[in-house]
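Proteins fold reproducibly. Look at a concrete instance:
___
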Amino acid sequence: MTDAPTTAPVARAATAGEVLAGYLTAQAGAFLRALPQAVGEAGSRPGALPASAQAADDLLRAVRRVGGALHTFAAAFDPAWAQESRTELRWLLNLLAQEPGYRRRSTRLLGALDSLADTAPDGAGMLAGHAGAPKARALLERQLTLARTRAHTALLQELRSARLHALADRMTLLAGDVPLVAPAAAEPAEALLPQTGTALGALVATAERLPWQRSAEAYAGAGLHRLGGPVGEPGTVPAARGSAADADAALAADDAPWLRARILVKRARYALEVCGAPGGELLELDRVLGRHQEASDAAATVATAARTPRITPATAYVLGVVHADQRLDVEAARYAFGRQWPAVAPGLVGSAAVVAD
């Protein structure tokens, strides 16, 4: 489904309050239209998709856009109301994203393992015929199914809670009356541009600090065949260095700036939407960083599965290969970002400077 903005370009005669009110009213309407369908589907089996064009995705989009606008243009809103709204929207966002996230992770990991274990004569995978592959697949499927079921149960409980009803009431009021601060709301629409420039500037500053130059070569799938040692010793495995917790912490720290960059890309996109400016290049960056996050989360899931007590060495080995495959996908996404960013950055820098003037 196209992640298209539901807003009109800034009219020069409009005030900042009118522009923000129009944008938030549209997003609140999208929220209220999607909510009954998403909530109604929550009573079905775990993993089921919402009826009517994936209402949960529509709901997530509206939640992200409202939250992004409240963050970027915070000075225009009642501070207490804006902070409470962002807190509740973040709660709902995290709640709604869990079950679909586990579903996508299951599809990604099981698909990767099946590809690596493929026994086709014209393209056998490096795990073809490996004794640990079926057990590793069963382990991953079992653990992800359990996690998805738990997320579904938690969703059911919260969707019946007073907290969700209170948030729905808040969004209903937002659809008709946006609590703006009078002085800021009365300013011309151009008063929103400096805050948009701040959002763009934050993205540029963060992206320029990313080590995207490190991914100098595209991953073509051959890296797995070099795991464990120098060329000529494909079967060797290096000695472990440090604990598994240390390795997980190191990878999490390595991924954190990229995950932060994705948040800033979304905020910049939504700020441009409010102002009616194009943001197609940011959408492409968002997609690349989304693939990065999916691969990073999948690798973390495999690492957790590999620490399951009493699994066989063969099963652990297969999980290690799948983990390496996902980390290589992380590097592939960084490579793609590095290819796109140099072309996008000058336009963002220029836009940030212009709108900040």
User: Anything to note?
Assistant: The chain has ten helices and no strands. The mean pLDDT is 83.
